[in-house]
Recover the amino acids of this structure.
């Protein structure tokens, strides 16, 4: 090949990549849009004429491939944890006190904007991008590699780098406006806000659709960490070619941090992207490791949220919804109003007591806000503008779905429908069963669940796994074609294997969400272990699990002592005499941990963590934290002023560790 052609090709690739980097990362365009477009077109023509020239770092390779039927799952190691929220200066003061107590008063904090987008993890091997995945539930996300390859601010090649980069995919405000204008011109439904647009664009099964929408990736985490501080890692990410936020600061005092927060809040509307707060991170990465993580959040970081945006509108009606556990939730139907860039037409009224205390009435002018910038809620009515003929709202006495008499839970505020066969509850339980917290079945959204239920095709969870074998002809129904039916059946087939904790969560047992489900799964170890507990009715054993009390156990007991529920569970997963429709995977114990499967008791006062935090830490290493010492206890960790439990352990000859010895053991693992 002519060397001049090869040289020109490399010149164009380097010119376009460099220009994109200057534009997206440093916000400093070095060539005009017209010159960029002309160079890009020249590159396209060269690649058409000489396809052997094409390299992975060519900007033309940021395109989608063939459409996928569904997304594969990706495990996150370490997990992509969410952040604890702070809503006022007292919360931040408590956070600072916690950090100072752990690492000393000279701690520095690196502050970054809390981007309002979709968290993504990128894996590089030998300099090449090999995987991109969504955060999902933190432990497991969706493989969107084909889609992230279409985002211009994500480098395909990073020289000599093997590791992981985490960050946020957002849609810039100008790109969001352009997309919605195009959708309006095409008669399509508009996106509510840039975050929804970004999430919807990234999770397209057809990467060509993602490629047609302008997304931007901001990096904020580098693994493995290459330096001593978060600030240095951010600078390294920029040097590697990633887009990082310019609105960051290293703060040594609480006063500096509050000043940065106030400044960013004031400039929030003028930024190119949506943010909903400021992230405070301990700058020293070794100190971060020292502080560790709680059950859900890292203890070294916190998200200081901006105050919720408010607006005024009118209550047109008050309706009620029936949840999967029978709780009746009142909802205000509103004159549509824009709050924080989102059009709101409905808002929660929480419960009967909330309406009565606030005296919210139909026809009232009310103040609403998006709590945490997400959930719309009615704050209070503007009584001075109330029509003098208005009447207090009367809460219904019968279920709006099945007509059964409603009851108020003992000692609580919830009004409930206790008819287990209530249509609304059955449908909501099915929606929960197939949701991301449960079996995560693509193609079974709310509309399709309602359709299948109304047709009598899916009346309980087990019916989902017999749909294909019943040879039903769904094609021809509204919204159902050959491809959508086949994709649905494929998703159901893929969902036939599920982890024990997700299976327990999917059942929709009151008060048993993901965290409690994981704890119970760790305790019973297998589906057979769960069945054994149900058969023996030894539910009180669950009291030894950190975070589980009598109320949760009573809900757990009530669920499995209902014959209809147990029949569905055994039809799904089988029993001692017959196989089920699905396979429930046993809990895998971490082989590398000395604590796997062991029972630990914590007693006394600790200087580095609270007792609850210690239990959570042990459970993360595969142990079971118990509140009582017995012959089955493997280890006792004793702090200051340890009393009777320490004496019991000594009598039984149980291994006893100090706080320092326990932490040292974890450090080794």
């Amino acid at each position: 090949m002519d060397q001049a052609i090869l040289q020109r090709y490399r010149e164009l690739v380097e010119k376009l990549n460099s220009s994109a980097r200057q534009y997206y990362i440093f916000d400093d365009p070095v060539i005009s849009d017209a010159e960029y477009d002309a160079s890009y077109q020249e590159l396209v023509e060269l690649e058409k004429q000489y396809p052997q020239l094409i390299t992975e770092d060519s900007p033309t390779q940021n395109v989608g491939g063939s459409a996928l039927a569904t997304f594969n799952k990706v495990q996150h190691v370490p997990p992509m944890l969410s952040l604890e929220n702070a809503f006022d200066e007292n919360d931040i003061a408590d956070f600072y006190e916690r950090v100072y107590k752990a690492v000393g008063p000279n701690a520095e904090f690196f502050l970054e904007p809390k981007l309002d987008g979709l968290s993504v993890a990128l894996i590089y091997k030998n300099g090449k991008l090999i995987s991109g995945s969504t955060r999902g539930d933190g432990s497991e996300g969706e493989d969107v590699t084909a889609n992230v390859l279409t985002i211009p601010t994500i480098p395909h090649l990073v020289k000599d780098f093997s590791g992981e980069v985490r960050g946020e995919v957002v849609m810039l405000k100008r790109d969001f406006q352009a997309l919605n204008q195009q959708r309006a011109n095409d008669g399509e439904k508009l996106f509510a806000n840039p975050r929804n647009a970004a999430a919807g664009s990234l999770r397209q099964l057809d990467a060509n659709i993602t490629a047609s929408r302008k997304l931007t990736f901001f990096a904020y985490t580098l693994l493995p960490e290459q330096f001593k501080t978060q600030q240095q890692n951010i600078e390294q990410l920029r040097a590697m070619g990633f887009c990082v936020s310019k609105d960051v600061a290293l703060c040594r005092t609480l006063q500096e941090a509050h000043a940065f927060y106030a400044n960013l809040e004031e400039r929030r509307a003028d930024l190119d992207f949506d943010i909903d707060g400021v992230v405070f991170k301990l700058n020293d990465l070794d100190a971060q490791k020292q502080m560790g993580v709680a059950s859900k959040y890292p203890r070294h970081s916190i998200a200081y949220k901006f105050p919720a945006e408010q607006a005024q509108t009118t209550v047109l009606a008050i309706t009620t919804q029936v949840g999967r556990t029978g709780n009746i939730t009142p909802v205000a139907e509103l004159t549509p109003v824009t709050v924080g860039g989102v059009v709101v037409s409905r808002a929660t009224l929480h419960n009967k007591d909330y309406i009565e205390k606030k005296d919210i009435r139909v026809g009232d002018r009310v103040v609403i806000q998006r709590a945490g910038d997400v959930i719309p809620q009615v704050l209070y009515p503007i009584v001075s503008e109330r029509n003098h003929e208005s009447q207090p709202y009367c809460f219904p006495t019968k279920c709006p779905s099945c007509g059964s008499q409603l009851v108020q839970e003992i000692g609580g505020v919830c009004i409930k429908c206790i008819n287990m066969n209530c249509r609304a509850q059955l449908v909501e339980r099915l929606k929960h069963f197939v949701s991301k917290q449960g079996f995560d079945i693509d193609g079974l959204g709310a509309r399709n669940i309602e359709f299948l239920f109304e047709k009598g095709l899916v009346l309980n969870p087990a019916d989902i796994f017999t749909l294909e074998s019943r040879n039903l002809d769904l094609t021809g129904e509204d919204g159902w074609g050959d491809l959508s039916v086949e994709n649905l059946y494929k998703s159901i087939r893929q969902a036939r294997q599920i982890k024990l904790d997700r299976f327990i969560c999917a059942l929709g047992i009151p008060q048993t969400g993901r965290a409690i489900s994981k704890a119970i799964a760790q305790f019973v170890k297998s589906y057979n272990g769960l069945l054994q507990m149900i058969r023996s009715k030894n539910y009180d054993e669950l009291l030894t699990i950190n975070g589980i009390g009598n109320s949760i156990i009573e809900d757990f007991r009530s669920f499995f002592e209902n014959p209809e529920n147990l029949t569905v569970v055994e039809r799904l997963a089988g029993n001692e005499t017959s196989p089920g429709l699905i396979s429930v995977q046993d809990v895998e114990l971490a082989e590398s941990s000395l604590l796997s499967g062991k029972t630990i008791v914590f007693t006394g006062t600790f200087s580095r963590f609270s007792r609850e935090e210690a239990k959570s830490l042990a459970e993360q290493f595969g142990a079971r934290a118990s509140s009582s010492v017995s012959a089955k206890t493997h280890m006792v960790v004793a702090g200051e002023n340890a009393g009777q439990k320490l004496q019991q352990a000594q009598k039984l000859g149980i291994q006893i560790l100090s706080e320092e010895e326990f932490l040292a053991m974890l450090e080794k693992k």
Notes: The longest helix spans residues 3-24.
